[in-house]
Amino acid sequence: MVERLAYIVKELVNEAPDVITLKLAPESGTIFDFKPGQFVSLLIAMREGPVPFLSKPYSISSSPTNKEFLGLTIKITEREGSFPKLVAKFRPGDKVTLMGPFGVFTFDPDKHKDVVMIAGGVGITPFHSMIAYATDKKLSNKLLLLFSNKTCSETIFYKDFDSFVSSNPNFKFICTATREEQVSMEGIETGRFDADRILSACGGSVEGKHFMLCGSTPFVEGFRNLLLVTMRVPKERVLYELFGSGV
Fold it and tell me: What is the separation of C-alpha 95 from the centre of its chain, rounded to a whole number of angstroms?
């Protein structure tokens, strides 16, 4: 049986107009061990209604090396009564329950020597954990992040990635805003990632590279087909996550 873990909200950080990061600390003891890329189930106790609590899986966005807080980065929807809407009502000092960690969509330093990470929107969360981990551990693994958003304002963690580049010579990243003809943030490009753009970012060859995909179902399926069919990447070198379902 998976243990339920008591955590306290330390801080809420606004990452984008509709995205927040919950910084959580254990009520007692230390943060549990997990692999970069894994997720937890967040449980919210209900005072009213037919069920005692609601739960939803969220990827851990902080690194396993971070023992100050556990980060869950969550997109807040406008629908009243939705789980993310309940999350947005948290305040520092509130108590929450976690279950986990779960998932096989993880970064393996021994296996993933040369990785291309393709993220859409809030699908960036497990990659933030992986890149922060590799940077903190000073690993020699090559990491390339291709991060797609509709607008510049939705590009969460940009400052973090820019900082990682400064301290990790093996990490590179490209961010795009697909619905802006002229970008409003320095360092962000326009347009979409297609086969030619991916190949160019990879230095002209995908030989020996592992690809990891995370985002909405249409986003992941589209890039999976692009890699497998168009770019002829071997199936065993493509790992993907559909918001909590590792394959």
Answer: 23
Q: 236: exposed, middle or buried (C-beta count within 10 Å: 0-12, 13-18, 19+)?
A: exposed
**Alpha carbons 31 and 67: distance in angstroms, whole number:** 6
Single-letter code of the amino acid located at 33:
D
Residue-wise pLDDT tens digits, 198-216: 999 999 999 999 999 999 9
Residue 83 pLDDT level (bands cut at 50, 70, 90): confident
Q: What percentage of the chain carries pLDDT values higher than 70?
A: 94
Q: Where are the beta strands (DSSP E) in the chain?
A: 4-16, 19-26, 39-45, 53-59, 70-75, 95-102, 114-120, 142-149, 171-177, 188-190, 210-214, 238-241
pLDDT in tens, 216-226: 999 999 999 99
d(CA 235, CA 43): 35
Are 16 and 33 within 8 A, CB to CB? Answer: no
Q: Distance between CA 14 and CA 157 in Å, rounded?
A: 11
DSSP string, 92-144: TT-EEEEEEEE-S----TTT-SEEEEEEEGGGGHHHHHHHHHHHHTT---EEE
